[in-house]
Specification:
With about 650 residues, the protein is α+β, with helices and mostly antiparallel strands. Strands 8, 9, 10, 11, 12, 13, 14, 15, 16 and 21 form a 10-stranded antiparallel beta sheet that branches. The chain has a 5-stranded antiparallel beta sheet with strand order 3-4-5-6-7, with no helix packed on it. α6 packs parallel to α8, α8 runs antiparallel to α9 and α9 packs antiparallel against α10. The longest helix has 20 residues. Pfam families: Hepar_II_III_C, Hepar_II_III_N. It is found in: Periplasm. This is Heparinase II/III-like protein. InterPro entries: Chondroitin_lyas, Hepar_II_III_C, Hepar_II_III_N.
Length: about 650
């Protein structure tokens, strides 16, 4: 899932500045998606395959189990596993949790938050074209067969009724969906998931019947495994998480059926994919923090599978996963959850013992504390924090993210220049989250600029573009960043960001310029459950039990209009003011807009979280051509300078 029309990323040099190991610069690699023909000695399908065809565009609807909703794997072991010559059943990613054995024996399927649906006649004869809720993900998970997990487990433990029924369902799928099933998107996209289910079912037959060789009555199962292997050979998805999962499943077939040529092809593809899937800095090619976590677990599972069946995974996977572990640690908020950037649900990181991930997952109680406090990655991410709990509780540190880099692809959003921010033990500025894989107005909004903390130009026909990190400065008590792009012909957009510690706050300077009049809106998406009061054209205050945030529109070069601050929440047409903790639930959440109209706009914002009893005041002054903002937050005072070129600097 998440594949787009253009599946090749142009090689883009993202500008950055190195600061004592905190900022890195790397030429992003070229993403190549290819279709590979059968390797020599590859299996013969039950019906001859068609020659490889160009890969069509698929809807963003059928991919890996969503991180945080369907758990993809357990943390990989920290030490190599023994070579047993076997491929271990990887489980069912939680898809089977909603289908207990009695429901399965009644041919009833359930996924997500939709009601159970009877897809068969009770004997294992399934209507594989059933699509009652018109949801591509529901349909794909039906074809994955992962919902049979409870029955396969019971059958493997000696329950003959369960074994007979699940094998009847699997056989029904094989009969009703002959090779090649490429014409059915749901069946196609589920291939690697279904391959693993077939391998699990094969193991259940052997253990459930207490035999060492597959009985002849199940010869069709091995034949279907060969078909599935051939399908994945001809239709490899390339260097994405989808292609990696295919390679692991292909390796599983080779290991199980003693086909060394399949194992070798899988290893070759994994070797090719790892350097694209995870770059040397630890960034993945998915443009999603949630899928970065998934990839960390997925590549751990790949390593384990190779070791268990006698193949050497080499050193690169471990090296890239170690870098990804550090990346994910920095991408973890002070609240103990991963940043919801890109297609990502609300979830905690999965820590591996002794790693930086273990440190953040345990809120600093154990594991290895990351060496860096702030890092900017060439793939287009800045992650920063006030500290790791050295001088204040871990959860009371402030954390933030900023996006830039290559244009949107895969599981990314149009979120360039967007900021997320957590402080005072709570989320302050949020990403909208992941609305799911249904192609509808909700997905269109959740991926759009309008769903993120950016300056938008809603009156223009903007597009997803590359965004440069022009410069960065890192000091012990503040960081500043300058970003720039051109979201439409004849338009430019610049954002300078200043992040402070003591007092903890964020200041941004947005500038937009166009050849004609446009409407400009700097948007601030706040966490749900807050009430926003507009106190003046320059001040809005968001409150919730135990929390308060000031949102200031500080006059600079342009005077805010009397109605220059508006608040939107829970709006459906056009969609605005929502938050998705996961793909099944949507909550209304306030959005504060700072507005301008004209050929150009200059919007200076301050986002200041405080304790409930604290107040925020400011004054401005101009000295020697420099603009200064003197801020008082409770008892803390600080001064910020705005240079003529827009650069923001802390003075005191």
């Amino acid at each position: 899932m998440g594949r787009t029309v253009a599946l090749t990323l142009a090689c883009v040099l993202v500008c950055g500045v190195a600061f004592a190991g905190a900022v890195f610069v790397l030429m992003p690699g070229v993403r190549d998606r290819s279709t590979t023909a059968s390797a020599g000695g590859s299996p013969t399908p039950s019906t001859p395959p068609k020659p490889p065809q160009p890969t069509p565009t698929l809807p963003d609807s059928t991919d890996e189990p969503l991180p945080g909703v369907d758990t993809p794997a357990s943390p990989p072991p920290s030490t190599p596993v023994a070579n047993t010559g076997t491929y271990e059943c990887p489980g069912y990613s939680g898809i089977d949790s909603n289908v207990p054995l009695p429901m399965l024996l009644n041919d009833t399927f359930q996924w997500g938050d939709d009601p159970p649906y009877k897809v068969g006649n009770g004997t294992g004869n399934i209507n594989w074209r059933a699509d009652p809720y018109k949801k591509p993900s529901w349909y794909m998970w039906l074809h994955s067969l992962r919902w049979l997990g409870k029955g396969i487990a019971a059958g493997g433990s000696g329950d003959r009724t369960a074994l007979t029924h699940v094998m009847a369902i699997i056989h029904d799928w094989v009969q009703d969906n002959p090779y090649s099933w490429k014409g059915d998107v749901g069946a196609w996209e589920a291939t690697m998931h279904r391959t693993n289910v077939l391998l699990c079912a094969r193991q259940a037959v052997l253990s459930g019947l207490h035999v060492s060789k597959l009985p002849t009555q199940y010869a069709w199962l091995d034949k279907s495994l060969v078909d599935h292997a051939q399908f994945m050979i001809v239709n490899w998805s390339g260097q994405s998480n989808h292609g990696t999962d295919e390679s692991v499943a292909l390796f599983g077939v080779g290991c199980t059926l003693k086909r060394p040529e399949l194992k070798q092809l899988a290893v070759d593809r994994l070797t090719q994919a790892i350097t694209t899937a995870i770059d040397p800095q630890g960034s993945t090619n998915e443009q999603s923090v949630g899928y970065a976590m998934f990839n960390y677990l997925l590549w751990g599972r790949a390593t384990t599978a190779l070791q268990r069946c006698g193949s050497d995974p080499g050193t690169v996977i471990d090296q890239r996963r170690a870098a990804l572990s550090e990346w994910l640690a920095l991408a973890t908020k002070s609240t103990g959850e991963l940043q919801q950037v890109g297609d990502a649900v609300k979830q905690k990181p999965t820590g591996a013992a002794g790693t930086a991930l273990d440190y953040v997952a345990s809120l600093g109680k154990h594991g290895t504390r990351p060496a860096k406090r702030v890092a900017a990655y060439d793939a287009g991410y800045v992650f920063g924090r006030t500290g790791w709990g050295e001088t204040r509780p871990f959860a009371q540190e402030s954390t933030y993210s900023i996006r830039y880099g290559a244009a949107r692809t895969l599981h990314g959003h149009d979120d360039h220049m967007s900021i997320t921010y957590s402080s005072h033990g709570r989320d302050v500025l949020i990403d909208p989250g992941h609305s799911g894989y249904q192609l509808d107005k909700w997905q269109a909004w959740s991926k759009s600029q309008a769903a993120h903390n950016v300056m938008t130009i809603p009156s223009a026909d903007t597009a997803s573009v590359d965004t440069q990190l022009v410069r960065a400065s890192i000091t012990p008590t503040w960081e500043s960043y300058s970003l720039a792009d051109s979201p439409a012909p004849g338009m430019t957009r610049k954002r300078d960001v200043l992040v402070l510690k003591d007092p903890d706050l964020i200041i941004t300077l947005d500038r937009g310029q166009a050849t004609d009049n446009q409407r400009y809106e700097t948007l601030w998406h706040l966490a749900p459950g807050q009430k926003v009061t507009v106190q003046s054209p320059t001040t809005a205050v968001a409150t919730a039990p135990g929390a308060k945030t000031y949102l200031l529109q500080i006059p600079y070069q342009q005077q805010p209009a009397k109605d220059g601050i508006t608040v939107v929440e829970g709006q459906q047409d056009p969609v605005q003011g929502w938050y998705y903790p996961d793909i099944f639930h949507r909550e209304s959440a306030p959005v504060v807009k700072f507005d301008r109209t004209g050929n150009e706009a200059t919007i200076l914002s301050a986002i200041v979280p405080t304790a409930p009893t604290e107040t925020v005041t400011y004054t401005t002054r101009t000295t020697a051509g420099m603009f200064f903002v003197d801020l008082t937050v409770g008892t803390h005072k600080t001064t910020v300078r705005v240079s003529a070129d827009g650069r923001l600097t802390r003075i005191s």
